[in-house]
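Hi,

Apologies if this is the wrong queue. I'm a grad student, and the batch job for Membrane-fusion protein from Hahella chejuensis produced an output file that my downstream script rejects. I'm not sure whether the problem is my script or the file. Here is the sequence I used:
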Amino acid sequence: MNAIVKPTSDASTTQSQNSDVKARRGKKIWVSLLALTTIPLALWATAYAINNKPAPMQSEKHQSLPAVTVIDSTPGAYPYQLTLNGEATPEYELKLKADVAGKVTEVGKVFTAGAQVTKGELLFVIDATDYRAALASARQTLAEADYALQQEQREAEQAERDWKRSGIKTPASDLTLRKPQLASAKAKFEAAQAAVEQASKNLARTRVIAPFDGVVVSRSVALGDYVNVGAEAGTLYSVEAVQVRLSLTQQQWGRLQQDLPETVTLRSIEDSGATWSAQVVGLDNYIDTSTRLRGLLVEVQRPLQQETALLPGAFVEAEIRGADMAGVLKVPASAVTAGGYLWYVDQDNKLARETPEILFAGDESIYLKAESAAALAVVRNPLAGYAPGAQVHPVREAAQ
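Support response: The file is valid. Your script probably expects a header line. Output copied below for reference.
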């Protein structure tokens, strides 16, 4: 029998396969060793990075908190201030009325609404014909009464002489001595004098003149009109002085009465640049029952001759300054909310609020009664959404 011999190529293939298996096993072992070495190193590096992470910058922390603008306000002494509004009114307001009846025959050129008049200037004239006649008649009556009185005085003297010559011892009666007749003649004479005086006044009243320096506010008569006694002819305002009545609460008056100033400053509400110095002339000795306020009267002399004329009817703002008050906290007007709260930032940078006692206001600031002597980081413009205790980032602004 012939032996079967395998080809040499099969043996080579088998040897090659065995070599590949060994190579793959060696590679797996190498990868395993590498993994066992790398993983601990990676874990250590991660832990190191976490433990040594740099702290975030302070600005990054603040960026996550709402920023609020605060002003450091320290309690101190400030002069008490009051700002009150009032209307300039004339010292005198006159309703011109006719004292005699008659037809208007002349109207003065100055008697026009808005015109300025001086004391003694003619405003209008009423027909004086009847009043001249009345005066003439009264003078005639006076002359007759004077003549009758003189006659009666002579007769009374003659009667007394006759009684003495008669030798009668009993006292003479008044009628014998003509005393009643003399008294009657005297009374008629005095009545005639009064009638002349009255007729003279009525005649003078036909010429209506300005009783003081003033301004014509209105005129209600015209040439040819017939006016009756008491009919209104116009309105005059005096211009020697204008007055402003300022209303004070009892609390405001209580803080002023110890050091009431002699003068106050008035500012025009319509014209921000106009100011006047006014004298304090009086204080109402009563309290208005409807408003519960007390009036303080101030006065500006010669208002039309000021650098800027202060006209009756103008609205003004009065600034009154009193004595210094201690323990006062000055804050911006915007710092106090409509609900009366004052917001501030405490030492822990948290929002807090209080309801302060408002003492007075002025110069775009509000002056409060300080609760302590410590400074307060006052929030300049508090928002409606603020909540006490909220953490914030205060941004300080220089105090005004």
